[in-house]
Design brief:
By secondary structure, the chain is an alpha/beta fold. It has 8 helices and 18 strands. Strands 4, 5, 6, 10, 11, 12, 13, 14 and 15 form a 9-stranded mixed beta sheet that branches. Strands 8-2-1-9-17-16-18 form a 7-stranded mixed beta sheet, covered by helices on one side. Helix 1 packs parallel to helix 8 and helix 3 crosses helix 8. The longest helix is centred in the last third of the chain and has 18 residues. The radius of gyration is 20 Å and the shape is elongated. The two termini are about 20 Å apart. The model has no long low-confidence stretch (mean pLDDT about 95). The protein binds flavin-adenine dinucleotide. Flavin-adenine dinucleotide binds next to helix 1, strand 10, strand 15 and helix 8.
């Protein structure tokens, strides 16, 4: 079977992997150069945190997450299973209690345990919640590795901008005439085609510090600026991320950057001396309920609406997409349109 995938973010690449595994001939067409800073996936934290995300998402995300984590563990070069630590300043302890009430899969960490787990935080935080089943990865390293694997498996990558003007149907164009399925993974790039898709702007930073060491993602609860910090290799940390109802994806605001940096400084003053390597901004593709969807219109299957769960959900969504396209299995939990 011939499959054309539009988009080379985490959704498109996971779909390419799932189709090629079933022996399909796969071409990926993307406006970006395979993977670059114009994709939402480029800016992600790479947290695989179904427990923490359970605070304000449906259980569906946790079940998609469990499947996806098994996938990433098998292919991601730096998949780390150190869990997630959630902390709050002494003034914000009620937030920690609320977080505990609204989530599952944590254990309380106190005093000496904190010193053993994250020595650099023990002086300021003597209580936290450890979600030990959670993991993280480096999105750029992982997706570049996936692209290399796909190329070695015969997947073709082409650069091309698909016209998304309202009313334009790519799948019935000449370009798509000899393919069996078009898998549309363009994220927000498909918003004229999927009119209920919206953007949720996220601003983030990469900073570098040799003065602080963290072994796992840390979430700092705060009434206005909840923050997470994900450690990468060589003293680099990803600080994220704002959540703003907007499709604007070019400029981070002064206020957002100030707030993210102040929160990092509150987590540990050594972040005050860190070097800012990069300020990033993107908009997450999301439907109104923030859950991912598989939609069929003719021979186009859209995999979209990954919101803040692209890495957590894309491998599981890709499996459902392939099971539908090749075996006719309808994934009722994520499919809300099936128009032949
Ligand atoms: C700051 C931030 C932090 C995040 N942290 C996490 C996290 O820790 N864990 C997690 O699971 N998720 C996280 N997310 C969410 C995750 O990044 C997204 O859900 C995910 O990247 C969406 O992937 P996608 O492949 O659907 O879209 P994208 O990554 O945006 O990919 C879309 C692709 O389509 C292409 N395209 C678009 N329009 C066209 C066109 N007209 N023609 C051809 N090609 C086109 C683009 O070039 C790109 O290749 C985060 C998001 C942000 C912004």
């Amino acid at each position: 079977m011939r499959i054309e995938i539009l988009g080379s973010g985490v959704s498109g690449l996971c779909c390419a992997h799932a189709f090629v595994e079933r022996g399909c001939e796969v071409t990926v067409i993307s406006a970006s150069d395979a993977l670059d800073s114009t994709c939402c996936s480029w800016w992600a934290g790479g947290m695989l945190a179904p427990g923490c995300e359970g605070e304000n998402t449906e259980p569906l995300i946790a079940s998609l997450g469990a499947e996806s984590m098994a996938f990433w563990q098998s292919i991601a070069p730096d998949y780390a299973t150190a869990g997630t630590l959630v902390v709050a300043t002494s003034r914000d302890q009620p937030l920690l209690n609320n977080f505990a009430r609204n989530t599952q899969g944590w254990q309380t960490i106190e005093g000496e345990q904190m010193a053993g787990l994250e020595p650099d935080l023990a002086e300021r935080f003597n209580k936290g919640l450890l979600f030990s089943d959670e993991a993280h990865l480096d999105p750029r390293q992982t997706l570049n590795q996936l692209i290399d694997d796909l190329k070695n498996s015969g997947v073709k990558f082409e650069q091309g901008q698909i016209d998304d003007s309202p009313g334009n149907d790519y799948s019935s164009s000449e370009l798509a005439s000899d393919v069996d399925w078009v898998i549309d993974c363009r994220g927000l790039g498909a918003r004229h085609h999927l009119t209920d898709l919206r953007g949720v702007k996220g601003e983030m930073l990469h900073i570098h510090s040799r003065d602080i060491h963290l072994s796992r993602p840390v979430r700092l609860l705060h009434p206005r600026i909840p923050l997470y910090i994900v450690p990468r290799a060589n003293g680099v940390f990803m600080i994220g991320a704002t959540m703003i109802e907007s499709t604007e994806r070019k400029h981070a605001s002064v206020r957002s950057v100030l707030e993210l940096l102040s929160a990092a400084y509150a987590l540990h003053p050594a972040f005050g001396e860190a070097e800012i390597l990069e300020i990033g901004v993107e908009a997450r593709p999301a439907f109104t309920d923030n859950l991912p969807r598989l939609r069929r219109r003719g021979k186009t299957l859209s995999v979209n609406g990954m919101y803040r769960h692209g890495f957590l959900a894309a491998p599981a969504m890709a499996r459902r997409c392939v099971a539908f396209a090749l075996d006719g299995i309808i994934p009722t939990e994520v499919m809300d349109e099936n128009t032949a």
